[in-house]
Amino acid sequence: MSAESDLQSFRNALANAKSVVVLAGAGLSAGSGIPTYRGQNGLWKTQDEQKVATPEGFKENPSKVWQWYHWRRDMCLQAQPNAAHRAIAALAVPSVRGRLLPSLKSEKPPLFVTQNFDGLSLRALEDLSDTLSPAEMNIARERLIEMHGSAFKTICLQCKHVNFTYDRPLSPALANVTRENAGELDIPVDQLPRCGGPNWKGSNRYGRCGGLLRPAVVWFGEVPDGLGEIARELNWTELLIVVGTSSLVYPAAGFAKTVKDRGGKVAIFTLEPTESDRNADFLFVGPCEKTLPNALGIS
Ligand code: BJW
Ligand code: ZN
Questions:
Q1: Is any ligand 1 atom within 6 A of the Cβ of residue 66?
Q2: What is the pTM of this model?
Q3: How many angstroms does the Cα of residue 287 sit away from the middle of ligand 2?
Q4: Residue 148 annotated in active site
Q5: Ligand nearest, relative to CA of residue 39
Q6: Long-range contacts of 61-64 (CB under 8 A, 24+ apart)
Q7: Element at 49 (helix H, strand E)
Q8: What ligand has the least distance to the C-alpha of 161?
Q9: Alpha carbons 131 and 133: distance in angstroms, whole number
Q10: 4-30: b or e for each residue (b if 16 or more CB lie within 10 Å)?
Q11: DSSP states of 133-178 as a string?
């Protein structure tokens, strides 16, 4: 199938689909300068995932883990959404959906499931605040599932309060942590981020209890967020658009098979296809910040 006919048949599939889901991975944000996990320059080349991305690793050395998340969180804050984030966000605009996805059964935007913790998809959506009404924005936010959590959320290990903030640093002791020294500094546990913030005054109330915070991200062995809603949608998804994931981490790695088994179609946008990507109905190879806006006709 030539690139052109691929594009035309993909556009036809979009036009005919009654339900569409988008699934994204780290490749979506690679064009914004956020490193992927696997592959040549992936994070796991220099960092042991068992030490920094498991609950056991955090229990063993919360200081190391917090330092590692601090510099990555900073990097996410400095990064900007790219053209692929913007193209997906544009599906929240009713007129764009009317043009591209005229057969959608629901009035809501397609469910957008991202494995990324960088917050860039949310920011791309929020950049549309002049275009979307407050109600449309709320619905679009609800249709975005950050299934592996967010760099900007914390959870208190004691009272379980979840907090969202773009503030930095989350504790004064993290201020000097950089990519180069992350994990090397000797920061005692009582100087790590705490429930109620650095000026905690001894209260034991919910959200201000002084307990140790952890990043509200999903580590290996933990259950991802939003699985119930995702499973419900995948039951009747006619087109799954997969962007920039190696499809090695479950349960997300199984979504394409679920859709195929129920008779749906799968479109994959990736830099380097793997063997399993070749079973896709539509395959777009190249940087998704170029291929995705082009395929959707949104620049
Ligand atoms: C581009 C591009 C460009 C580059 N344009 N493309 C054995 C068998 C089956 C399962 C398991 C098993 N052993 C253990 C498990 C379970 C485990 C798992 O799957 N492990 C595998 C490694 C084997 N999974 C879990 O533990 C999950 N939980 C779970 O299973 O709970 C049980 C349960 C499930 C369901 C119901 C009930 C119970 C939790 C997984 C948590 C993953 N957490 C992380 C860290 C998040 C926080 C943080 O960032 O620190 O999530 S790990 C990391 O991997 C991160 C990612 O979201 C995730 C996926 O990575 P992703 O996005 O695919 O990135 P890469 O780097 O792998 O790929 C990038 C791709 O982009 C590449 O293909 C590039 O080519 C491409 N690319 N530039 C387009 N410009
Ligand atoms: Zn607390």
A1: no
A2: 0.97
A3: 42
A4: yes
A5: 1
A6: 62/189, 62/192, 62/212, 62/214, 63/185, 63/186, 63/187, 63/188, 63/189, 63/192, 64/183
A7: helix 49-52
A8: 2
A9: 7
A10: eebbeebeebbeebebbbbbbbbbbbb
A11: -HHHHHHHHHTEEETTEEEEEEEETTT--EEE---S-SSGGGTT--
> Tens-digit pLDDT profile for the chain (299 aa)?
445 558 999 999 999 999 999 999 999 999 999 999 998 999 999 999 999 999 999 999 999 999 999 999 999 999 999 999 999 999 999 999 999 999 999 999 999 999 999 999 999 999 999 999 999 999 999 999 999 999 999 999 999 999 999 999 999 999 999 999 999 999 999 999 999 998 888 999 999 999 999 999 999 999 999 999 999 999 999 999 999 999 999 999 999 999 999 999 999 999 998 888 878 999 999 999 999 999 999 98
Q: Name the nearest CA neighbour of 58 among 183, 144, 203.
A: 183
Q: Collapse the DSSP code of 208 into the 3-class scheme (helix H, G, I; strand E, B; otherwise coil) and give the result.
A: strand
The contacts of residue 235 (CB under 8 Å, 6+ apart) are: 262
Contact by Cβ (8 Å): 289, 87 = no
Cβ-count burial of 285 within 10 angstroms (0-12 exposed, 13-18 middle, 19+ buried)? middle
Q: Which residues of 34-53 are buried (b: 16+ CB within 10 A; e: fewer)?
A: bbbbbbeeebeeeeeeebbb
Ligand 1 atom with least separation from CA of 43: 66
Give the chain's end-to-end CA distance (angstroms, integer).
Answer: 25
The three-point CA angle 85-86-88 to 5° equals: 70
- Confirm or reject: Cβ of 221 under 6 Å from ligand 1: yes
Amino acid at 29: S
211 CB near ligand 1 (under 6 Å):
no
